[in-house]
Structure formats: C-alpha cells, structure tokens
C-alpha cells in the first residue's frame, strides 16, 4: 500500500518524545536518522543511539487526513504551530523483497564470503558463512565489521580459541570457526544477541564449537589466543582492562567500531599491555590490532 512520510528535525533530547507524539497521531512507524549523515556505528544490541541533530521520520497510511495530523502535532508544546516539517508521498513497493534483492554475497579477504541464505554461494569451495539479518546486529555491510572479517581471514586460526566480545549476530565468532578456529566464545550484554548467535551458528553447523555467555555470567578466568571486539570507542576505552585480560600472553587483539579520529585515545588505553600494530582505515573507520606483551 502507498504511504505518506513526514520528516521532522529534532535533537537527541527530544526525539523519543517526538516519536511518542507521532505514534499518538497515527504513525505506523517512526525512525531516527542523523541529520548530517555522519558515519555512526551500528548500535549495541538493544540500544537506541541518537545524534545531536536528528531527523525523525514517520510513515502514515496514505488515507490519513494529513491536515488533521499536522494540527494534532502543532497542538503539542514540543513542536508548536509553526514547526518545520516535510511531507512526501512514498511509492508502493514490496520493500522486504526489494531489500532482499539488493543484499548480495560479500567477500572479505582472500577466502571468506558472507552469504544470505536466499542466494547461491559464488564459490562453493570458499569459506562461506550463511547469515541473514535478524535479531541482532552484524551482517558484514558496515565498514567496521568488514575490517574485522578481513583481519580474521588473514590469520592462521588453526587450533586457536577466539573470543568475540560484543558478539551481536555472532558473525565474527562464526567466521573464525569456519576459517579453522578450534573454539569460539561469544560474549554480549543482550540475551537477544546470544539467541541470534546460537541460531546463526546452528545454521552454519558450528554450534558445537561456539560457547556463548551473557557478560554478567562469563567465567572470571576466561582466556583466548585471539580476542576481537567490534563495539564502540567509548566502551573499548572503558573496558580496556577487562578486554585485555581475556587475551593470552602473546595473543592477538583486534578492535574496531572506532572512528579514525578516535584511534589515538583507544590506543592509549591498550598500549601498556599490547604492542600495537599499524592502524588500518576504511571509510572513516579504523581497526586497531596488537600483540599482548608477555607477563
């Protein structure tokens, strides 16, 4: 069915309240978008991330009385009668089908492919991870995920144990197992991410090699040969001690979810215990890797 879209500009402080007002006025969906289209990392599972200047975009049934809707919105003190807005007609499409048609297998490094289940794998002899977007974040489309997958593809993972800290969809842990790791451990704060990781591992026939923990339940003595964390610069800095402690001496560490201009502060948090390697950048984001110093 066709839709009418209303776009309003707001702020992080007011966007949630504005969403409630739009829903009350009959909106069938409300989404938030960075007004300046700055690169912003995928939110942590279960988290809503807003920006300093936020567009609030709502969809209404095409049969809605938009004059009545606008009057209803104008009656709220948050907006007022002269609030700035843009109304657009959205064409009728099968959006889920269009999205599926545009989601293609993606190659990372030399041998690793991430493939949606509804498409044929381009190279049956490659390392193919079957993954559909679903309950949690991480499909390989974001530059930070791409940087992590390319790094894993470059490593010799045979007989290695890998920890995926902030596992989300489980994409990195599953890729590590398909690339030859002996065992992978996924850790996340969100039960939904644990469920998604388990389901995706099962789809890829590696569930028997993947152990999953909510962060609050992870064993205190947990260690791995390789630790990878694709979250955000702030949590990476705050959790440097905890993440570093998961890495065996001489083990490898990979960090992403970091804007290039944030790299220095993240490196500072880790360089006391890790020998940091050259930074790799992609589309304004970067990957920091290092080797843990011997005790």
Automatic annotation (TrEMBL):
<dbReference type="GO" id="GO:0016279">
    <property type="term" value="F:protein-lysine N-methyltransferase activity"/>
</dbReference>
<keyword id="KW-0963">Cytoplasm</keyword>
<keyword id="KW-0689">Ribosomal protein</keyword>
<keyword id="KW-0949">S-adenosyl-L-methionine</keyword>
<dbReference type="Pfam" id="PF06325">
    <property type="entry name" value="PrmA"/>
</dbReference>
<keyword id="KW-0687">Ribonucleoprotein</keyword>
<feature type="binding site">
    <location>
        <position position="166"/>
    </location>
    <ligand>
        <name>S-adenosyl-L-methionine</name>
    </ligand>
</feature>
<keyword id="KW-0808">Transferase</keyword>
<dbReference type="GO" id="GO:0032259">
    <property type="term" value="P:methylation"/>
</dbReference>
<dbReference type="GO" id="GO:0005840">
    <property type="term" value="C:ribosome"/>
</dbReference>
<dbReference type="InterPro" id="IPR004498">
    <property type="entry name" value="Ribosomal_PrmA_MeTrfase"/>
</dbReference>
<protein>
    <recommendedName>
        <fullName>Ribosomal protein L11 methyltransferase</fullName>
        <ecNumber>2.1.1.-</ecNumber>
    </recommendedName>
</protein>
<dbReference type="InterPro" id="IPR050078">
    <property type="entry name" value="Ribosomal_L11_MeTrfase_PrmA"/>
</dbReference>
<comment type="similarity">
    <text>Belongs to the methyltransferase superfamily. PrmA family.</text>
</comment>
<feature type="binding site">
    <location>
        <position position="188"/>
    </location>
    <ligand>
        <name>S-adenosyl-L-methionine</name>
    </ligand>
</feature>
<keyword id="KW-0489">Methyltransferase</keyword>
<feature type="binding site">
    <location>
        <position position="145"/>
    </location>
    <ligand>
        <name>S-adenosyl-L-methionine</name>
    </ligand>
</feature>
<comment type="function">
    <text>Methylates ribosomal protein L11.</text>
</comment>
<feature type="binding site">
    <location>
        <position position="230"/>
    </location>
    <ligand>
        <name>S-adenosyl-L-methionine</name>
    </ligand>
</feature>
<dbReference type="GO" id="GO:0005829">
    <property type="term" value="C:cytosol"/>
</dbReference>
<dbReference type="InterPro" id="IPR029063">
    <property type="entry name" value="SAM-dependent_MTases_sf"/>
</dbReference>
């Amino acid at each position: 069915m066709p839709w009418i879209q209303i776009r309003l500009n707001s702020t992080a402080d007011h966007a949630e309240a504005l969403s409630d007002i739009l829903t009350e006025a009959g909106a069938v969906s409300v989404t938030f978008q960075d007004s300046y289209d700055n690169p912003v990392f995928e939110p942590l599972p279960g988290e809503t991330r807003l920006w300093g200047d936020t567009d609030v975009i709502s969809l209404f049934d095409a049969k809605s009385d938009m004059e009545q809707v606008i009057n209803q919105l104008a009656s709220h003190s948050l907006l007022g009668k002269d609030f700035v807005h843009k109304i657009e007609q959205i064409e009728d499409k099968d959006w889920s089908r269009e999205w599926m048609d545009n989601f293609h297998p993606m190659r990372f490094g030399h041998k690793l492919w991430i493939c949606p289940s509804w498409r044929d794998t381009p190279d049956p002899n490659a390392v193919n991870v079957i993954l559909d977007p679903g309950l949690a974040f991480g499909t390989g489309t974001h530059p930070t995920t791409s940087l992590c997958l390319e790094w894993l593809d470059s490593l010799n993972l045979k007989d290695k144990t890998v920890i995926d800290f902030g596992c989300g969809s489980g994409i990195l842990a599953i890729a590590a197992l398909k690339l030859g790791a002996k065992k992978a451990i996924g850790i996340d704060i969100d039960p939904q991410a644990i469920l998604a990781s388990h389901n995706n591992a099962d789809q890829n026939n590696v569930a028997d090699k993947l152990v999953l923990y909510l962060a609050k339940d992870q064993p205190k003595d947990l260690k791995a040969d390789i630790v990878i964390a694709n979250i955000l610069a702030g949590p990476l800095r705050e959790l440097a001690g905890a993440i570093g402690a998961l890495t065996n001496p001489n083990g490898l560490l990979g960090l992403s979810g970091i804007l290039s201009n944030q790299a220095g502060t993240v490196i500072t948090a880790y360089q006391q215990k890790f020998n940091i390697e050259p930074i790799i950048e992609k589309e304004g984001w970067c990957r920091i890797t290092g080797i843990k110093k011997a005790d």
